């Protein structure tokens, strides 16, 4: 029997939720607003909220100075490529750990997670030298490889968690009906894990899209994604906040739009199995 | 014509096209995001029109990211860049490591002798130039003429620190949110330590004695830091310990600073009526001194250098010669006006009446640059070069750590004495690690 929620409590919760939402969204809103101001308006004190001379000049300047679409395409290739390759490796790994766990499965999972605890700068120079010798510096394939390796523990962990929620009896039933391993995974397991898979894919695309350390350090001109595009508008000597905001808005717009349209899948996947 | 001959001709044409395409050289240029560099990127079509066999790829980065990126690449011989934008700090260190191609054999028309001697000296080793200056800067006092007039004061062209303190006191009106002086407080070797190291020179302080012994336990550094803290605590804006160039620029442009001592390049920003509310009220003076023969101004130049091992050294040199030439200055003047010409590199620019008429700060910029000598920066002799830095590889780390101590003192977290004692300890430790002292 569900307990009735008092109207006052409901209103308070709504206000709190909106307040929290606006607080989290505020930096993005401010960035978007600033992108339509002049540089003088961008630094005005007190700040100007909406009553300024709206201009698209910053966007034109950014587009004129930088090749946005090249950076955008590099971001797409790197984030989607690393996520897909990560999935190909992670699905069998998560299946094995979820359905045929060994004595050391938990240790292996913890070890994979521990690799995320190493500060990236600790392996920057060795990796840079390896990339130099393999001719992978400033290549998209090099970045796909690095980001796949970086995000693989998260993908495996997420898929492992989702797979664990799927009753093993269903897989056994499929086996008894004559399904091989491939059929079991492709036709039984994966369709049931679609919400989890979707949220894993989306989350990893977002992580790869926003990754700035490796994408800045391993690229120059050819493979530089949108993170490098934003970095080119930051300056400690000169006020370019409006242009920087325009560049940031252009860089985050695709991922924001993607997140907006896929939020149902994302929320469903992230809360999968949270309440039984 | 038979089919086989047609095929042969077609194949030949394809080969010729392929050879032509392969003759094109691509230069990857790493540069910093500031107005002058972006202008160069915009005008690069002029270069490629004159050199159709050279294609330019640009990597524009924020100053600190660029520094880390190019240092990593050149130290590991990554070969990602053909032309690098580096500062006067890097050039002598990298040249000594043979990481840079010498810029010899420049054409007569380039006129190396025209480069300002102080800048040229900082970029040369044994008379050989290792990078060409794109623009140079010093630091100077920018002040509000209207506030000085209201206070019944006049700023001398060459003020002392006492003049600065008196002017700061007279102009401060905290109720009206007008602060007598704005200075850098943000920690970093290129942030607050650029200002404080240059100021320390004028008070007779130095980073190291001739035996590389740190000198923060001396009286001169104490005078430097207490003068700075007194000025900022009494007449500076709130929260100054997190203010860098941009924060102070925004304060000055919005009319909240009576004085600002910072890079000469700021002069064009604060006098630009599009961005500055006090554009017509800005006066300029030399950085202050304490009567010891050295002024508290720095000397810096962004330069273009060629990393050793590049595949295209000759093409890179051709580009650098174009970008740092007198003709380039004339090109900028023609396209965007003399006020937008990159300053501080060539003597001839300051002899050009069109330029001095368009840039009211030109004379003070030149005088400021001439007042700094990177080979003899302090009152007492020092074993290093650099006015607001010490040209040794360890300085970035040490300078930032000391800057954190001084920034903490400005924020009131430690006293001046504690900050200086901590600076002395940490600098001694790092110099021992570096093998400079035992």
TrEMBL record, chain A:
Protein name per the record: Carbohydrate ABC transporter permease
GO biological process: transmembrane transport
Protein location: Cell membrane
Transmembrane region(s): 12-33, 72-96, 108-131, 143-163, 184-209, 240-261
Membrane topology listed for this record: Multi-pass membrane protein
Keywords tagged on the record: Cell membrane, Membrane, Transmembrane, Transmembrane helix, Transport
GO cellular component: plasma membrane
rRNA processing found in the keyword field: no
Pfam families named in the record: BPD_transp_1
Entry similarity comment: Belongs to the binding-protein-dependent transport system permease family.
Record domain ABC transmembrane type-1: where: 72-262
Family annotation (InterPro entries): BP-dep_ABC_trans_perm, MetI-like, MetI-like_sf
Main location: membrane
Organism the protein comes from: Mangrovicoccus algicola
PROSITE patterns: ABC_TM1
TrEMBL record, chain B:
Electron transport found in the keyword field: no
Database matches in CDD domains: PBP2_TMBP_like
InterPro entries assigned: Bact_solute-bd_prot1, SBP
Upper taxonomic lineage: Bacteria, Pseudomonadati, Pseudomonadota, Alphaproteobacteria, Rhodobacterales
Organism from which the protein derives: Mangrovicoccus algicola
Cleavable signal peptide: 1-23
Similarity field: Belongs to the bacterial solute-binding protein 1 family.
One Pfam family named in its UniProt record: SBP_bac_1
GO CC field: periplasmic space
The entry's keywords: Signal
Subcellular location: Periplasm
Protein name per Swiss-Prot or TrEMBL: Sugar ABC transporter substrate-binding protein
Keyword Signal: yes
């Amino acid at each position: 029997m569900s307990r009735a929620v008092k109207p006052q409590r409901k209103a308070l919760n709504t206000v709190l939720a909106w307040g929290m939402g606006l607080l989290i969204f505020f930096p993005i809103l401010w960035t978007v607003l600033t992108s339509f101001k002049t540089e003088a308006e961008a630094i005005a004190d007190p700040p100007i909220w909406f009553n300024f001379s709206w201009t698209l000049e910053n966007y034109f300047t950014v587009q004129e100075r930088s090749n946005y679409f090249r950076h955008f395409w590099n971001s797409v290739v790197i984030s989607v490529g690393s996520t897909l390759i990560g999935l190909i490796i992670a699905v069998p790994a998560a299946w094995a750990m979820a359905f045929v766990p060994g004595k050391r499965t938990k240790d292996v999972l913890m070890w994979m997670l521990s690799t995320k605890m190493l500060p990236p700068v600790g392996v920057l120079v060795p990796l840079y030298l390896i990339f130099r010798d393999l001719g992978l510096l400033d290549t998209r394939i090099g970045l796909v490889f690095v980001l796949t390796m970086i995000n693989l523990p998260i993908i495996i962990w997420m898929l492992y968690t989702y797979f664990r929620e799927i009753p093993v009896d269903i897989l056994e039933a499929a086996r008894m009906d004559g399904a091989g391993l491939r059929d079991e995974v492709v036709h039984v397991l994966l369709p049931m894990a679609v919400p989890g898979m979707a949220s894993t894919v989306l989350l990893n695309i977002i992580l790869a899209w926003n990754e700035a350390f490796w994408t800045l350090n391993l690229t120059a001109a050819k493979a530089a994604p949108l993170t490098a595009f934003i970095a080119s508008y930051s300056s400690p000597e000169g006020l370019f906040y409006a242009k920087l905001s325009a560049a940031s808005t252009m860089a985050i717009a695709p991922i924001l739009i993607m997140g907006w349209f896929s939020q149902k899948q994302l929320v469903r996947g992230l809360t999968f199995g949270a309440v039984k | 014509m038979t089919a086989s001959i047609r095929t042969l001709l077609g194949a030949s044409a394809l080969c010729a096209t392929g050879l032509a395409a392969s003759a094109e050289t691509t230069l990857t240029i790493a540069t910093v995001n500031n107005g002058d560099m972006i202008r160069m990127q915009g005008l690069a079509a002029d270069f490629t029109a004159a050199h159709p066999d050279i294609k330019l790829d640009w990597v524009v980065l924020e100053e600190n990211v660029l520094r880390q990126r190019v240092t990593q690449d050149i130290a590991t011989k990554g070969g990602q860049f053909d032309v690098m934008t580096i500062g006067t700090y890097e050039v002598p260190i990298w040249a000594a490591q043979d990481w840079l191609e010498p810029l010899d054999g420049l054409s007569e028309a380039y006129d190396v002798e025209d480069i300002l001697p102080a800048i040229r000296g900082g970029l040369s080793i044994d008379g050989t130039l290792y990078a060409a200056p794109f623009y140079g800067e010093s630091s100077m006092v920018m002040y509000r003429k209207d506030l000085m007039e209201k206070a019944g004061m006049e700023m001398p062209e060459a003020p002392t620190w006492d003049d600065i303190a008196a002017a700061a006191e007279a102009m401060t009106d905290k109720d009206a949110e007008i602060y007598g002086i704005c200075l850098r407080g943000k920690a970093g070797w290129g942030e607050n330590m650029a200002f404080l190291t240059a100021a320390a020179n004028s008070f007779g302080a130095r980073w190291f004695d001739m035996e590389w012994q740190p000198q923060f336990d001396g009286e001169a550094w104490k005078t430097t830091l207490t003068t700075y803290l007194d000025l900022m605590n009494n007449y500076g804006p709130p929260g100054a310990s997190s203010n860098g160039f941009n924060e102070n620029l925004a304060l000055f442009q919005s009319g909240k600073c009576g004085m600002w001592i910072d890079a000469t390049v700021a002069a064009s920003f604060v006098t630009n009526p599009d961005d500055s509310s006090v554009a017509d009220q800005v006066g300029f003076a030399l950085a202050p001194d304490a009567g010891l023969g050295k002024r508290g101004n720095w000397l810096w130049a962004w330069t273009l250098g060629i990393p050793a091992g590049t595949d295209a050294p000759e093409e890179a040199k051709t580009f650098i010669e174009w970008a740092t030439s007198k003709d380039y200055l004339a090109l900028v003047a023609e396209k965007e006006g003399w006020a937008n010409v990159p300053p501080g590199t060539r003597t001839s620019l300051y002899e050009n009446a069109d330029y001095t008429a368009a840039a009211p700060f030109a004379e003070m910029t030149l005088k400021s640059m001439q007042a700094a000598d990177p080979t003899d920066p302090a009152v007492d002799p020092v074993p290093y070069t650099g006015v607001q830095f010490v040209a040794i590889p360890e300085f970035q780390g040490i300078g930032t750590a000391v800057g954190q101590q001084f920034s903490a003192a400005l924020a009131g977290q430690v006293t001046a004495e504690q900050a200086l004692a901590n600076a002395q300890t940490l600098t001694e430790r790092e110099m021992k690690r570096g093998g400079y002292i035992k």
